[in-house]
Specification:
Order of helices and strands: EEHEHEHEHHEHEH
Structural class: alpha/beta
CATH topology: Arginase, Chain A
CATH architecture: 3-Layer(aba) Sandwich
Largest sheet: 7 strands, parallel
Number of helices: 7
Bound molecules: manganese (II) ion
Number of domains: 1
Strand order of the largest sheet: 2-1-7-6-3-4-5
CATH superfamily: Ureohydrolase domain
Length: 243
């Protein structure tokens, strides 16, 4: 299945989706069709996977150069945690090692778990741009968008904890001071106008921790916004849209 340049979505555990037999080390170069694909044109590819982003990034093998735009409270640059190198604290470090990814823009940063001095230094040595949640709150979404050249091919990856836990409480590492819903939807719409979004994933939603399904509803609304923005994007051809 040709993946690039069609849209690829990796959606983690929203509505409790799981793929039996998929683990963190399972290569996922092929997209698995989701239950809700009928709401979309047939050529939209969705991959539903586990919480780990690397299979998503890996699926773009042979394509690029790609910029990763990450929304997350955490930089996820741990080389390993208790010997595990592919865990959820290591995803951006692993992404940095993929030759088809040449730029990491990490925004919403404010958590320390995967950001000890060693990890921050490694990220900076690579050239990752670490943008704190506070900077976005102070300087606005347009300021962030201006960091990315027009037409850049981007993978957009959202960790639910990048948003404020008051609107996405169902996460394993809640961090106060996060991005608002409007920050994120404005960012997705702005990106779709400016760059070519070739992939999107939304990860680390822990449904069992949800409150009044608030996180699930927020996640769904974010995904709707992403889809709607892409449909209107001048960077997406009629063919990409399934026509
Ligand atoms: Mn996180």
């Amino acid at each position: 299945m040709k993946i690039f340049p069609e849209f690829n979505f990796l959606i983690n555990s929203i509505f409790n989706f799981r793929i039996p037999g998929v683990s963190e080390n399972t290569p996922v170069p092929e997209c698995t069709r989701p239950k809700f694909q009928p709401i979309l044109e047939p050529s939209y590819n969705f991959a539903i996977g586990n919480i780990f982003r690397r299979p998503f990034f890996r699926a773009f093998h042979g394509h690029g150069p790609l910029t990763v735009v990450q929304i997350d409270a955490h930089i996820d640059w741990r080389d390993e945690v208790n010997g595990v190198t592919e865990g959820y604290s290591s995803t951006m470090r692993r992404a940095s090692e993929l030759p088809w990814i040449d730029r990491l823009i990490q925004m919403g940063m404010r958590g320390t778990g995967s950001a000890r001095r060693e990890e921050v230094e490694a990220a900076k040595a690579y050239g990752a741009e670490l943008i704190t949640a506070m900077e976005i709150q102070d300087r606005g979404v347009d300021w962030v968008l201006n960091l990315i050249p027009d037409g850049t091919a981007c993978l957009v990856t959202i960790d639910c904890d990048g948003l404020d836990p008051s609107i996405m409480p169902a996460v394993n590492a809640p961090a106060p001071g996060g991005l608002t819903y409007r920050h994120v939807t404005n960012l997705l719409h702005g990106l779709s106008r400016k760059v070519k979004v070739v992939g999107f994933d939304l990860v680390e939603l822990a449904p069992e921790k949800d409150v009044n399904e608030l996180t699930a509803w927020t996640a769904a609304r974010i995904i709707y916004n992403m889809i709607g923005a892409l449909v209107r994007s001048k960077h997406v051809t009629h063919k990409d849209k399934g026509g």
